[in-house]
Hints:
The protein is an alpha+beta fold. The chain contains 17 helices and 13 strands. It is elongated and about 115 Å long.
Amino acid sequence: MISNMGIVSLCIVLLLGSEICIAARQELIVTTIKQDPYTMSKGSQLEGYCMDLLTELAKKLGFKYKVHLVKDGAYGRQDESGNWNGMIGEVVRGEADLAVAPLTLTAAREKAVGMTKPYMQTGISILLRKDIVSEEAGFFDFLSPFSGETWFGVLIAYFVTAVCICIVGRLSPCEWSQPETEPNHFTLLHSLWYAAGALSLQGAGPHPKAVSGRVISCTWWLFAVVLLACYFSSLSSSQGPDSAPLMIKGFEDLANQDVIEYGTLAGSSTLAFFKNSNNPSYRRIYEHMERRKSFVSSMDEGVQRAKEGNYAFIGESVSLDLAVARHCELVRAHEVIGMRGYSIVTPLGSPMLKNLSVAILQLSEAGELAYLRTKWWASSCILDSAKGSSLRAHSMKGIFLVLAIGLGIGVLLSLFELTSKSRSTAGEQKKSCCAVLTQELSQRLRMTNTKGDQETSDKNKA
């Protein structure tokens, strides 16, 4: 393969005395720029997404390479006289054979250099601090302090507690001393109402008189107090007064407000997109940035200004995703416009262009590009987001455990009270304690009222 990339000329004198120069392959000179996570310093070496991509391409195409950082620290912009700077300029002038970096595929660059098939798709989006973006309130936002598992656990705890109160109200002789003649106050419906009243801190009588019933009531009151304290604490933190009333979902919202300053990278393709757009909103954004001179000189500067607050940085969506992954206080807007791709740059007309494009497609089909994206865009906020603002069931397992223990103790105490009465009655009637206890349980656990049955029977006899 004969090309002007990475070659030296070897002159051979033929028999006719004429001199012909042929090309011999040498290692390729690759230019790049430092940008996390595409290219980063690691001691005297370079690492990152682009370096891994370059290694995979070298393996597939069988070439050697030498990497250096672009001298002027620029990506590539054409001035008024038509000259290019940055990595594009180095490739155009023959100072480099390849440019491997997050270089956006544009029409102007395509005229000056060769650009491969995109190895990564991106677009334009907005980076802001989380606390200056308020989301639209939903109908059920009042449920947000607790997760679905927690609400389900509270519902189960409510029904189980009501059933336990009903059981204790039937078993304990202190609550229902004469099943044959007295009505039972703690029916299932009243138990449900009593538990609901305690949960809302309002109370609903009559209250339990037996020790077993009071143990269950105190445990349920404690559960209700802790539950409500956690709910209101989480609700106030998620809807605090420091959250701004401003809502920014996309570029239309950004263009229609003057509270938050915004800007983009000076001389970037993102700026050119807004400058050349016919969309009225995009034109207003460009005119605002041009009037305020709210540009930044680097990606890091844009991220830092966004972190400081009251500034929205407009940039490539994949770069903004990385900033969100590294800085948990930042968030990227959902809207992405101007979809484009990152490509590798070669000299215009280079025979390597097609081979590089094919190799990039092969890496994409094999899942290698997706793997590299996952590797270098790993989020440090995963653990923080897993905690979330919703209080999950496992974070309240202590109070659920206390409630379960209290319910168990209450039911056991009611059985002990009934057994103690049965033993006393068995001594008076000279009967077996087990027989008396069985009779008591049979009377107390009937679903119908014994007194009502007795009155019905007397009426039938009359």
